[in-house]
Amino acid sequence: METVFKEALLQQKKNEDDSAINEIAELKLNNLELQKQTLEIKHEYEQQIANIQIEYEAKLIKCKNEVDSQRKEYQQDLQKEYDKYKKEIEELKKTNETEKQNTCKMQELQQKKVISDHEIDMNDTITNQLRMECQILKQQLIDEKQYHDQQLEYAQQQQKFTQQRNTELQKQLTEEKAQRLIFFQQLQQKQSEITKQLEQNVKNQADRIVHLESENQSLQSTLSALREQIEKLNFQEYQKRIEMQTKQLEDKDKYIGKLKEEIEKININQLQDNQIEKVLKILKSVDVSQ
């Protein structure tokens, strides 16, 4: 019984330890998966932010180049027109044309210059709008980066919490192992004490049986002597005494036989809980006066 009890305790302890180890392994696996997802999200959003920045910087450079190119073309065209009309005015002056024609040419030239300046202003307005759009996009990128930084911080906090939980579980498992070991040692000590007590009780009962058998033999010898005296004296008083002693002797014989049967049934190494209680009841029921 002791071996079976130990094996049951060890199997229960092993099952609990395996369960705790599996729980810790699962938490570690979840922690690694969370770290992997966090790194993937971080890498993905960093790549998206970098791509958006590259895209809008390229767009801004392209727009700026187009505006500069158009401005340069307008300036070149304006300069050509201005030179052309200036040359015509000089030719007109040379040919002594009327001042009115010169004035008309100058007004026409100024109108073209005003139109050209307006187009240049429009190009500057478009450039400013593109710059504002780029600023808005840049602010959006900053906001998205802050959001993803918050997500990353939350993931790191979850990872820290998981690590703390793993540490607490390992500490709890160690404490439970120590408590189980102490309980198992106490149980072994108690079982050993009970076994020793039962062995001592069985030994005492065996000694008691030997003593009773010796008394029985002594009583039989006395009975035989009394019978001889009764046969010689033939007194009623001695007959009654012999009958009483015979009855006592028979009662003791029955008691000794019953006690022998009970003790022979006992196997200390294979005692079960109900058998231990039965042996204790038998030992308590022994009449010391007998």
Automatic annotation (TrEMBL):
Alphabetical UniProt keywords: Coiled coil
Coiled-coil residue spans: 10-112, 152-236
Source taxon at top rank: Eukaryota
Record's protein name: Obscurin-like isoform X4
Species assigned in the record: Hexamita inflata
Lineage: Eukaryota, Metamonada, Diplomonadida, Hexamitidae, Hexamitinae
